[in-house]
Amino acid sequence: VMESGITLIDGGRLYYRGREVADLAARSTVEEVAALIWTADEAKAPTLFPLEPLVHSQRIEDVSPFVTGLPPVEVFQVLLSLSAAEDPAAYDLRPAAVARTGARILRLMTNVAAGEAATRIAEALQRGWSPGDPGAAALLGSALVYCADHELPVSTFAARCVASSEATPYAVVLAGLAALGGVKHGGEVELVEAFLREVEADGDARAAISGRLRRGERVPGFGHSLYPDGDPRAAGLLSLTAEAYPESPAVSLSEAVAGEALQLMGERPTLDLALVTIARTLDLPPGGATALFALGRTIGWIGHAIEQYEGGSLIRPRARYVGEQPG
Question: What positions carry a catalytic annotation?
């Protein structure tokens, strides 16, 4: 559909700008991966993400209490719209300026999710979501890196379409969030959460999966069309989670479900199951798994916006008319 220099999916492996994502998740910070995707240079991370906390406007401070209790992704949508109206620098669509705007957007979203001012993204989420577990920051950071981009799923394509009109990066991210909320994209995370609750209630992973198959229902969280041999993002994150929290009931549950799904369906876990496993392991707040997905993927949306702005072309496909002919 279009060219991109950000993500390569090849041979069941995933790369950002030629770097294998598994290596980035293990060795690089979220900020470094954002700088890599946006500028092709990890070393620019300290400039893009200064240690000084992001200061919110009075309008955002005034509105924030009224969105308390909404799912995090919906709060992102409300507050990003307000912030866009107060950020005239966002209209500067040169690559370096868009990267700076992207950093402001990502830090705002982190502040919203964590409930406190962010200096370093993964650490802020850990303090807000798992304050008693400093080790959670590494796992959360790895999850954000694995979520950062995935070529052209519907949310990224929507984001690029909006960028092609030369709307601001805020509009690009809002478009991505709107698509992410659909049940066939980010909404899959909520389906996995419901399925795992069903397995817990049955007390038998095999019976829960078999019951869905008998009823002709889909088993969410398994099988990805781009990865016949298994989603490397899920494999990497589930391995990291099991390594860090070997005694976690959530890890045991996911392993049991994954084993039965492989035997009964020949399918392996997707990123959605891995995110829910992390959320359950770390006892994240409601909507935390989807918020983690959205935060990570925002990095990719900004990267694709930079590419689209640089290309300067408007995405305007044609439809094949199949209706009644005139006359």
Answer: 224, 272
